[in-house]
Amino acid sequence: MADTAPVLGRPTGKRAAKVHAEPCPVSPVVDLVFSRWTTPILWLLNEFGRQRFVELERRIGTITPKVLTQRLRQMERDGLVVRTYHPEVPPRVEYEISELGLSLAPLFQHLVEWSRAHLDEVAAARADYDDRGQPMP
């Protein structure tokens, strides 16, 4: 079947199938970067540089060793973190943010700026909503 002309800017053919498979192009990035613990780990590695596992664990405070290990492995797999193993006695492992991870710094900076400018508004909107007796979502 031949592609027809796009209606109101809608893609057709293979491009249309891709759009339908992923309706929001931001979703994969949100899943990758903003999953639980990924953002704080990236933030700490960006702020403090190369760190050992124990240093990350202490700085985060509320993460279990098992979960930190899982997140670091996934972030290494995704190319956001570089793991360096030093064959010493005892062995030493360090983690640092990769070039790909560093490319997210402007995004994080924009989010910091947005939070400073708008979180008070969010708190006010929540208070207004709660004052009206609306049920929590």
How is this structure best described in words?
With 137 residues, this protein is mainly alpha-helical. It folds into two domains: 23-100, Arc Repressor Mutant, subunit A (Orthogonal Bundle), CATH 1.10.10; 104-137, no CATH class. It is 58% helix and 10% strand. The protein has seven helices and three strands. The chain has helices at 13-21, 27-33, 38-48, 53-60, 65-77, 99-102, 105-131; strands spanning 51-52, 81-86, 92-97. Strands 1-3-2 form a three-stranded antiparallel sheet. The model is unreliable at 1-9 (pLDDT under 50).
Please indicate the count of domains: 2
Based on helices, strands and strand pairing, what is the structural class? Answer: mainly alpha
Examine the coordinates and then state which fold CATH places here, giving the name of the CATH topology of the largest domain: Arc Repressor Mutant, subunit A
Mind telling me the CATH superfamily name of the largest domain? Answer: Winged helix-like DNA-binding domain superfamily/Winged helix DNA-binding domain
Overall strand count: 3
Q: How many angstroms does the end-to-end distance come to? A: 45 Å
- Number of alpha- plus pi-helical segments: 7
Summarize the structure.
The longest helix has 27 residues, at about 105-130. A hairpin with a 5-residue loop joins strand 2 and strand 3.
